[in-house]
Write a structure and sequence with these properties.
single chain, 194 residues, alpha+beta
Length: 194
């Protein structure tokens, strides 16, 4: 009587077919994975921005005779006149509100905020246009209302925005006119992305 000796395992063809199917599934899932990463990043950055604005407001309320200035900075010690905040920004104690760090006046950098990751952009906008600084007075109220807009490569349709109301409170911007793009505070105009 002959006994057949058979070993279990995969043939090379079965292995190749399995790898082909796994590869095809990975290719199909990749765009969804990228979208999830982009969405997670923009939500995280929006939440962090809200926290930074709360910090500036809180610091202003602690100092009744001073102004807290938020502004873009490329050296972590001075403001630059640009509406591109994604490279980093600072919160500074600005005793005279001139947006300049004057050590002799008691001005000081309170906090440095790093650059946005993932190639995302950050701009401050108001009904009157772009803003290159934002200030809170000694009572914790902003000197003007405005909207901070966080954008990624997907454009304005996927942008997030934080509205700073004249009361000093913040809220997430909403799509007020139903066109799928969030709106600036006040005028109802759509946010824009660079």
């Amino acid at each position: 009587m002959s006994v057949l000796n058979r070993s279990s395992g995969f043939t090379i063809i079965e292995l190749m077919l399995t790898l082909l199917v796994v590869g095809m599934l990975a290719v199909l899932a990749m765009p969804m994975f990228d979208r999830t990463i982009q969405e997670s990043r923009i939500v995280s950055q929006t939440n962090e921005l809200t926290s930074h604005l709360g910090f500036a407001r809180s610091e202003a309320a602690k100092r009744p005779n001073a102004t807290i200035t938020l502004c873009p900075s490329n050296d972590n010690t001075s403001c630059i006149a640009t509406n591109n905040w994604e490279g980093g920004w600072i919160a500074m104690l600005d005793m005279d509100g001139d947006e300049t760090l004057d050590a002799g006046d008691g001005d000081a950098v309170l906090k440095v905020f790093g650059a946005m990751s993932g190639g995302n952009s950050l701009q401050a906008q108001s009904g009157g246009g772009n803003v290159d600084s934002f200030q809170f007075s000694g009572n914790g109220q902003p000197l003007a209302s405005g909207t901070f807009v966080v954008c990624d490569g997907r454009g304005a349709g996927e942008a997030r925005a934080v509205v700073v109301m004249i009361s000093g409170q913040t809220r997430l911007a909403t799509d007020e006119n139903g066109d799928g793009i969030v709106n600036l505070h006040g005028g109802g105009a759509n946010v824009t992305c660079p």
